[in-house]
Design brief:
This protein is mainly beta and about 325 residues long. It has a single domain, classed as Tachylectin-2, Chain A. Helices cover about 0% and strands about 45% of the residues. The strands form six sheets. The chain has a five-stranded antiparallel sheet, with no helix packed on it. Strands 2-23-22-21 form a four-stranded antiparallel sheet, with no helix packed on it. Strands 9-10-11-12 form a four-stranded antiparallel sheet, with no helix packed on it. The longest helix has 4 residues. The chain starts with a helix and ends with a strand. This is Secreted protein. It comes from Streptomyces zinciresistens K42. InterPro entries: Glyco_hydro_beta-prop_sf.
Length: about 325
């Protein structure tokens, strides 16, 4: 059983910025997905107690109210600084529109975890609720060459498991395998029940979206060819992938770098990942604050039947975590 009093010690900091400016909704996203309109900033580095580098990235939001008997809040929001030392962090709240409260014990995973590793930084937390074992499985990178797995019963205290992805598992010249997200998704022909999406940097210093599959979410097989190349969508780099399903098909949503538009794009891959239909802009970043021309690393959830997107808003390594409401 998860005990709130055991997990929370010291003062917690309530977070949540003002409601953003009124914005006219963009044209409907391809694939029949909702329009998303910015609501507010959820986390700003300057308001965080744990703020070693003045930047945070890669939010992952998870509903925990139906999984824990005494949760900190209805939702856990995981995030991290990227620059050294990084550190996987947690905030919690009762609504996806905020406010969120910073967990006072951050970081919950640091860049040194003896005897398992000692690296420059850890970042890009993605948490999967593994219903097979009733555990929260945390995937994170540290350093950029390696994606690791840790496991938890309460979503706060984690036990180290293993390396699940490294550059050695990909083609020669691969320099980064990071920003991984894992999803429950059946691929019967491959004997798989989970898929992983991640960013790979190649010998030409061009970042692409890659993928792998697994029967147990621990041991993986990886396609050696990119799922989405930046050249496929007119970008220099792509990253921050997330899997969505709708209407009997599967889609990957991902970000482009600001020099390539700073928008979220969408590619239909089909339920078996055999398609490569690049459908264009999923979410058009606003030029106004906090986005300032860049939206990235989306995570999706539903609250009271309303769809939400939690994402990086602003230039890389100087932005905030924001939320947009779908309709």
């Amino acid at each position: 059983m998860f005990l709130r009093t055991a997990a929370v010690t010291g003062a917690a900091v309530a977070l949540g910025g003002p409601t953003g400016p009124s914005v006219t909704a963009a044209q409907a996203a391809p694939g029949g997905f909702p329009d998303y309109t910015p609501v507010r900033t959820l986390l700003t580095p300057s308001r965080l107690k744990y703020n070693p580098t003045g930047e945070i990235i890669f939010p992952c939001v998870r509903g925990v109210y139906d999984k824990l008997s005494n949760p900190l809040g209805r939702y856990h929001l995981y995030y991290a600084p990227h620059d050294a030392p990084g550190g996987v962090c947690l905030a919690y709240g009762d609504s996806l529109e905020g406010p969120f409260t910073e967990y006072p014990g951050n970081p919950i995973v640091s860049n040194v975890w003896s005897p398992h590793y000692s690296v420059s930084h850890v970042s890009s937390p993605h948490v999967l609720w593994n219903a097979d074992v009733r555990e929260f499985w945390l995937y994170f990178h540290g350093g950029n060459t390696t994606t690791r797995l840790a496991r938890s019963k309460d979503g706060v205290r984690f036990t180290y498991d293993k390396v699940v992805l490294s550059t050695s598992m990909m083609p020669a010249g691969t320099s980064e395998t990071s920003y991984a997200r894992v999803f429950r998704h059946d691929l019967p022909a491959r004997g798989a029940r989970y898929v992983m999406l991640f960013m790979m940097n190649n010998a030409g210093n061009r970042r692409a979206i890659c993928w792998g599959w697994s029967a147990d979410a621990r041991n993986w097989t990886f396609d050696q060819a990119p799922l989405v190349r930046p050249s496929d969508v007119g970008a220099v780099n792509v990253g921050g992938p997330h899997l969505l399903t709708r209407g009997g098909s599967a889609y990957v949503v991902y970000n482009t770098d600001k020099g390539s538009g700073g928008n979220l794009m969408i590619t239909e891959v089909g339920t078996d990942f055999s398609r490569r239909d690049h459908l264009g802009v999923f979410y058009d970043s606003r030029t106004t604050a906090p986005e300032n021309g860049r939206a990235a690393s989306p995570s999706f959830g539903t609250d009271g039947g309303v769809p939400y997107m939690v994402y990086e808003a602003g230039e890389r390594l100087s932005g905030a975590i924001a939320v947009a409401r779908g309709r």
